[in-house]
Amino acid sequence: MSKIPFRVSPMLATLVKEPFDRPSWIYEEKYDGVRMLAYKEGTKVSLISRNAIDRTDRYREIADEISKLRPDTLALDGEIVVFDKRKVSHFQLLQQSKGPAVYVVFDCLYLDGKDLRRSPLQERREVLERFLKGHSGKLLVVSEKLASNGLDAFRIARKRHLEGLVAKNLESKYVERRSPDWLKVKVNHESEFVIGGYTQPDGSRQYFGALLLGVYEGKKLRYAGKVGTGFDNKTLHDLFASFRKLKQGDSPFVDEVREPMAAFVKPALVAQIAYTEWTKDGKLRHPAFLGLRDDKIAKDVHREEV
Question: What are the b/e assignments for 165-193, b being 16+ CB within 10 Å?
């Protein structure tokens, strides 16, 4: 059987504060889903998450669609998403399976025996567009370029209420780390946080009141505040069931948590949280729970710095 001689960790974008325009860069939509690497070796397809977990069975229809592509060997990088009616992706829709999952592909790392990782992005993108051109399946799409000018692209992203945009140097090679050749600008703020505990419920709410959130600073878990919105009753129930297995007496946070009757859990679960900004004392303003992530290890959750 045909084999691809490598498996990679995904190339990551660096967060910047302001939009910009530079020659020889492209400006793509930033998708709100789950990063996924796809490997096609003959008729076999594997879908691997960014923390190296095989998700082929979870997204079997996408894997089957990739298996129909012409190349014998193929390595792709992209994001699995669910779109709303306005063609905007939302992690919460994917997490709750509210719509068909689509694989948005933005890079090609290997094609029919040729390793493309050292080739410039412009060449990799052209290869990708060439072999996906004319593909009739709806589960595989190429990432959308918003505009040729970065400032115009940001205005489009803001108007469409996208999560943001990703700017990429067309001369860049594919590297397995966070890179200054891929830069992301956020319109809406979302990020991962570690769940370190919860508060007791008030009024008619069941199970718990709010989640206690943190981010790692080295090996220390820093308290980032609490989130009490974004839950339905099923989510409250399911999370509380998970907490029973993780409950511990001591706080996992290095900072004092001034919450009466707080309960603490082992910092193993990662939540996706939307928020408006960070306060000066390092807490989240107006956070909302979007869902759990199983594609990132808690110890890898750090505050993204511009």
Answer: bbbbbbebebeeeebebbbbbbbebbbbb
Q: How far apart are CA 240 and CA 11, in angstroms?
A: 35
Considering the chain, what is the average pLDDT of its residues? 95
Q: Are 23 and 169 in contact (CB under 8 A)?
A: no
What is the band of 1 on the pLDDT scale with cuts at 50, 70, 90? low
> Rounded to 5 degrees, what angle do the CA atoms 9, 15, 17 make?
170
Global pTM reads 0.90
The whole-number pLDDT of residue 134 equals 74
Task: Let me know the angle formed at the C-alpha of 270 by 269 and 274, rounded to the nearest 5 degrees.
Answer: 140
CA 15 to chain centre: 14
Residue 48 CA to residue 295 CA, distance in Å, equals 10
**149 has a pLDDT exceeding 70:** yes
Active site residues: 30
The pairing of strands 288-293 and 140-142 is unpaired
Place of tokens 């990703």: 166
Residue 298's nearest CA partner among 265, 274, 264, 271 is: 271
